[in-house]
Structure formats: structure tokens, C-alpha cells
Design brief:
single chain, 442 residues, alpha/beta, 4-stranded mixed beta sheet, 18 helices, globular
């Protein structure tokens, strides 16, 4: 983890160097490289790119996908190493595009490694006018420059098992279930009822974390001091109670145990997540036969529905950044315009994958249409997302979000399991965080 801090410092140092080299970011726009190097951490964007953009590439341009998993911040380390060599790299080895997540976006936004969407890449504000404001706020640097765009917005909600809701509440209707889960007191009450019926309200320790953390009123760090928002304390209190009472099955997010709760034999009432979580995690996790079509009758596919839940929130998102030094500016501009600004394409992606895309008119149109999501039993879940999407506030986002989120979850696990005291868990948290960010203090 110390490598992350060192890489961040190195990035800041090199930014100062690159900012004084006398070259304008857009000077190479006229030249066209033959290799497009795209740095990513999984195949999600590759799938979107191949499906919706690849056919537009010039015939003599080759795409080189540099895929490094996120685990242990390996992706950031790989990207940092490449960006540090960007100025001296051969043209066909330079980073052209790279992706970032909200948790660490500012690390790159506030450097010269990211190209300005308007000044350097050449898009116009007319091109981006229909995108959700928060998606641009996340990628705006200290000087007000927009440094990346995304095709998705990520408001979240509660994705619940219809058959379990019917057994516990007597209804699986999203409107009625939504009323039963509209605040945390009601949510806890349903958790008790679900337990009596032999179900888990949530899969594990981390399931509700993003709901609470996204509603923080204070950033993790203020004036180099660590701040613990009341929402984090509320998550710890709830998770301790849910673990002790058997309201969750003690699974960790992304674990096989968590996925098993989505399957045909799963006993989990529901999961908190945005649209991408439905499409990329729950849909495959629900299947009994991974080689058979995603359709009703294959595992629990179709036995799910969506409601807002006790608090609105957002989770994640993937932003596309153009890298300074790229010799493929024209292609970068066309990729960003096509994959993040085209209302027709945003509609198509949403209708085919269930993703909530980054175009206000397109999402409003789908919400008012007869669109049906087969995984959600034919529900039009887009309309449930609209209110959350327009109210998302990312004013508390910071460069420390990823590290803090990972450390608080890992440090509290033994406390949830009753192996250590709460005081010891906090001590473990501060120890690990101060090792990761040595300039901070309690």
C-alpha cells in the first residue's frame, strides 16, 4: 500500500515538470497513431467499446488493451508507472486512454496527465449538456477544467428477491416493498421478519456500506485530520447488530458466499447496488447454468425487483480520461462523443443491458416507456433511479476515499465477528490508515 502513496507523490512531482515543458496538450492532435493503448482494470469497458465503437476505428489502427486487476491497487500502480514514462515512451507505447473510478479519480484529475475535455480534446459544452451534473463534478479539477467523461450514472437502490418478499411481506410489488423499506427503522423491522422465516436480510458485512458512506456530510480528511462521519458510525452499529442477530450470513462483498446468495438456493432478501451491479454481478450470479441463456427459469433469473430502499445513494462509475501525450486525439474525441454523448446510443445501452446511462433525456424517455428488464421480472427499474440520479451530491469526494473505505471495512470485520473490541477495531483502523497516508493524523 505504501507504493500508492509514493506513486501519488511521484505523479505530483512529474505533473509540475510536465506543466513547464512548454508544449501544449493539443499540439499532437494533427498526428494519428496506429496503436490505441487503453488502460483498464476489467473487461466491462472493453465489452462496451467492442460492441458500440470498434467498427468506427480506422482500419489501420490497432487497439492494445492493458488490463490489470484492481486488487491491491495493482491497476493504479501499473497506470502510474506508464504515465511516469509517458513523455519518453515511443509513440505506439504511450497511454492514450485510461479509466478511473470515483474513489480515486481526483488523484488523476488534478494532474496534467489528464487532458481537458474541451480545450485539449475538442468536445463542446453542447456535446455534453445532457449528462448528469454530478458525473462531471467528479472529473472537474481545482481550476474548473473537465478531465473525463462517462457513459453511465450510478444511482443505487435495493435489489430484492421477489419470492422472498412475497413470503415475508405478502407482496413482491416494487411500490409496496419500497414502502416497507423506506427508512432504516422499517428496514430493520423487515430484517427481523425475514430472520424468523429463515432468510438473511443482507448477504454480509459490506452490503450496506456504500449506502451510508455516500450520504456522508463530511469528507474523510479535513486539514490533514481524519474525520469519522456519523454515517460511518451508523453503518458500524447496524452491521454489528445484523451480524450478532443473524440478519446477514457473514459474507464479504465479491466473495463466493456473497454470490451464492443470488443463486437458485440463495436465502438473501436483497442487495444494495446500482444498475451496473445488476447487470455485471447479480445477473450472472443468479444463474444455475452459466452456459445457458440468461432467461427466466435459469436459476433465480427473473425472480428479482428493485426499489429505492431507506436512503438514496450512488456507487461507483467508470470515467474515460484522455492521456496527455497521446497521438490519437481525434480518435479520443470521437470515442468520448460517441460513447458518452450520443443520446441514441445511451438509450440502446440502457435497453440492452439495464445500465443507467449518462443522458438525462434518454433516461427520462425510458422511464416513461414500456421498457421491461427481464432480470427484474419485467420491471421498468429506470424510473426508480431518476430521483436519485438528479440529487446525487459528490461534494465530499476526496482522493482518500478508496483507502479509507477499504481500511474501515477490513478493520471492523473482527469486531463484527466478536473477536475484538470496538476500541481495538478503531486502533487497527487508524494504524493501517496512517501507514497508508503518513501525513494524516487522528
Amino acid at each position: 500500500m505504501k507504493k500508492i502513496v509514493l506513486a501519488t507523490l511521484a505523479l505530483a512531482s512529474l505533473t509540475a515538470f510536465m506543466g513547464c515543458n512548454g508544449k501544449k496538450s493539443g499540439e499532437n492532435a494533427a498526428s494519428a497513431g496506429k496503436v490505441l493503448n487503453i488502460y483498464v482494470w476489467n473487461e466491462e469497458f472493453q465489452d462496451r467499446f467492442n460492441t458500440y465503437y470498434k467498427s468506427r476505428l480506422p482500419a489501420d489502427v490497432t487497439v492494445n488493451w492493458v488490463i490489470t486487476p484492481n486488487q491491491g491497487s495493482a491497476y493504479q500502480q501499473k497506470l502510474d508507472e506508464a504515465l511516469m514514462q509517458q513523455e519518453n515512451a515511443d509513440a505506439d507505447d504511450k497511454v492514450d486512454l485510461f479509466l478511473v473510478e470515483a474513489d480515486y479519480a481526483l488523484k488523476y484529475v488534478n494532474t496534467d496527465f489528464t487532458l481537458d475535455v474541451y480545450k485539449d480534446i475538442g468536445l463542446t459544452k453542447e456535446d455534453t449538456k445532457d449528462q448528469y451534473k454530478y458525473t462531471q463534478d467528479v472529473m472537474t479539477d481545482f481550476n474548473g477544467n473537465l478531465k473525463g467523461l462517462t457513459w453511465q450514472a450510478c444511482p443505487g437502490g435495493f435489489i430484492y428477491r421477489r419470492s422472498i418478499a412475497l413470503d415475508v411481506l405478502g407482496t413482491d410489488d416494487p411500490e409496496e416493498v419500497g414502502k416497507a423499506l423506506s427508512d432504516w427503522t422499517k428496514f430493520d423491522d423487515v430484517a427481523r421478519k425475514a430472520k424468523k422465516k429463515g432468510y438473511f436480510m443482507l448477504s454480509g458485512y459490506d452490503d450496506a456500506f456504500r449506502v451510508f458512506s455516500d450520504n456522508m456530510k463530511n469528507p474523510w480528511v479535513v486539514d490533514n485530520k481524519i474525520v469519522i462521519d456519523p454515517q460511518i458510525e451508523a453503518w458500524i452499529k447496524q452491521t454489528k447488530e445484523y451480524t450478532a442477530s443473524g440478519y446477514n450470513n457473514k459474507a464479504s462483498l465479491w466473495s463466493p458466499e456473497s454470490s451464492q446468495g443470488m443463486g437458485p438456493k440463495g436465502k438473501v432478501f436483497g442487495y444494495f447496488g446500482p444498475a451496473w451491479f445488476i447487470d455485471f454481478v447479480m445477473a450472472p450470479g443468479s444463474l444455475d447454468d452459466q452456459n445457458a441463456p440468461r432467461a427466466v427459469g435459469n436459476g433465480s433469473y427473473g425472480d428479482w425487483a428493485f426499489c429505492k430502499g431507506p436512503q438514496g445513494f450512488s456507487w461507483g462509475g467508470t470515467w474515460i480520461c484522455g492521456a496527455k501525450g497521446s497521438d490519437n486525439i481525434d480518435i479520443i474525441r470521437d470515442i468520448l462523443k460517441t460513447l458518452t454523448c450520443d443520446a441514441k446510443l445511451m438509450t440502446e445501452i440502457a435497453e440492452k443491458s439495464g445500465d443507467f446511462t449518462n443522458n438525462v433525456p434518454a433516461m427520462q424517455a425510458i422511464a416513461n416507456s414500456d421498457y421491461q428488464n427481464p432480470f427484474l421480472g419485467g420491471q421498468n427499474h429506470i424510473k426508480f433511479f431518476l430521483e436519485s440520479a438528479t440529487s446525487i451530491d459528490k461534494s465530499c469526494i476526496s482522493m482518500y476515499d478508496q483507502g479509507m473505505a477499504e481500511k474501515i471495512q477490513s478493520s471492523m470485520k473482527d469486531y463484527f465477528d466478536g473477536k475484538i473490541s470496538l476500541d481495538q477495531a478503531w486502533n487497527n483502523f487508524y494504524t493501517s490508515v496512517l501507514e497508508l497516508y503518513p501525513k494524516l493524523s487522528k
